[in-house]
Amino acid sequence: MPETDLALLLEAGQKAGEIASSYFGRDPRIWNKDDNAGPVTEADLAVNAHLAAVLQAARPDYGWLSEESEDAKARLTTRRQFVIDPIDGTRAFIERSRDWAISLAIVEDGVPLVGVVIMPERGKTYAALRGQGATLNGSRLSVTGQADLAAATVLTNKITMQPDFWKGGVTPPIKRTFRSSLAYRLCLVAEARFDAMMTLRPTWEWDIAAGALIVAEAGGTVTDRQARPLRLNNQMPQVNGVIAAGPVHRAIASALI
User: Fold this and answer.
1) Cβ atoms 120, 93 nearer than 8 A
2) pLDDT digits over 11-64, tens only?
3) What number of other Cβ atoms are within 10 A of residue 32's Cβ?
4) Rounded Cα gap, residues 140 and 132, in angstroms
5) Which cofactor does it need (predicted)?
6) Binding site membership for Mg(2+): which residues?
7) SS3 sequence of the chain
8) Tens digits of per-residue pLDDT, 84-105?
9) Alpha-carbon Rg of the chain, whole angstroms?
10) What are phi and psi of 58, to 5 degrees?
11) CA triple 219-221-226, angle to 5 deg
12) The whole model's pTM is what?
C-alpha cells in the first residue's frame, strides 16, 4: 500500500485511467441522471467502484464525496475527505473527445491538501501537494504572468460572456475558448496554456477540488466568483462559481458584477 496520500492517489488514479480507457470509443452504456443532472456511463460507474474500494480501504477514516456515489453526509464529521470525479467531462468521453479527466483530491479542514488530475487519452498526469508545488508528468508548473484583461486568454463557456455579468454591461475583450472538463480547464491554467478559467454557475466540489490545488501550487489564485477563498466539504457540496488565474485574476474579479 502506498505510504503517502499523494502516492495513493497516483496509483489508484492510474489504474482508474486504464479502466476508463478500456471503455473509451467503444459505445459504453449511457443513462441520464435524475433532475437533468447529465449523462453517466458504465465507465463512470466502473471507475467509481474501483476508486471507492481502493481508497476507502487504504484510508477508512477519511470521508467520501464522489459524483457517482450517494452522499450520505458522514463526510461532514471527518477532518479529511476524498473528493472524487471518476470521469470529469462525461459528455466529451461519450463524444470520443480526449478532453476528459479523472479528478482525485484529498481535502483537509475545507482546503485541498492533495490533488491529482489524470488525462488518460492525452498521457498527462497533473499532481500537487499543498506547499510543495504542482507538476505535469513530473515537471514543475507555473501560471502565466499575464495581468492585462484585454490580452488574456480565458477558458469559459459562452454564457459567461453575456454583458449582464460584467460591470457597466460591457463584456471585456478577452479571448475565450472552452474545454468540457472543469478539472482540465484548471490544469491548463496551471500549465500556462491559458491565463485564466472561470465559471459563474454553482460548481460541484468534485469538479474543482484537485484542479484548484494544482493552480494554486503553480502560483495562481483560485476563488469563487466573488473573489472569496474556496471552502470545500460543504453540506451542499458546491461553491459559488470559480475564478482561477495568474495575475489577471484581480482584473477579472474586479470587472465582474
Assistant:
1) no
2) 999 999 999 999 999 999 999 887 767 899 999 999 999 999 999 999 999 999
3) 10
4) 10
5) Mg(2+)
6) 67, 85, 87-88, 207
7) CCCCHHHHHHHHHHHHHHHHHHHCCCCCCEEECHHHCCEEEHHHHHHHHHHHHHHHHHCCCCEEEECCCCCCCHHHHCCEEEEEEEEECHHHHHCCCCCCEEEEEEEECCEEEEEEEEECCCCEEEEEECCCCEEECCEECCCCCCCCHHHCEEECCHHHHCHHHEHHHCCCCCEEECCCCHHHHHHHHHCCCCCEEEEEEEEEHHHHHHHHHHHHHCCCEEECCCCCECCCCCCCCEEEEEEEECCCHHHHHHHEC
8) 999 999 999 999 999 999 999 9
9) 17
10) -75, -35
11) 180
12) 0.97
What is the spatial distance between Cα 49 and Cα 69, in angstroms, rounded to a whole number?
A: 9
Q: How many residues does the chain have?
A: 257
Residues near 60 by beta carbon (within 8 Å), at least 6 away in sequence: none
Would you say 215 and 143 are in contact if contact means Cβ atoms under 8 Å apart? yes
Measured distance CA(45)–CA(38) in Å, rounded: 14
* Annotated binding-site positions: 67, 85, 87-88, 207
Residue 217: CB atoms within 10 A of its CB come to 24
**Please, what are the domains in the chain?**
5-140 (3.30.540.10), 149-255 (3.40.190.80)
> What grid cell was written down for 89?
467531462
Q: Please check whether residue 74 is in contact with residue 235, taking contact to mean a CB–CB distance below 8 angstroms.
A: no
Residue 218 CA to its chain's centroid (Å) = 15
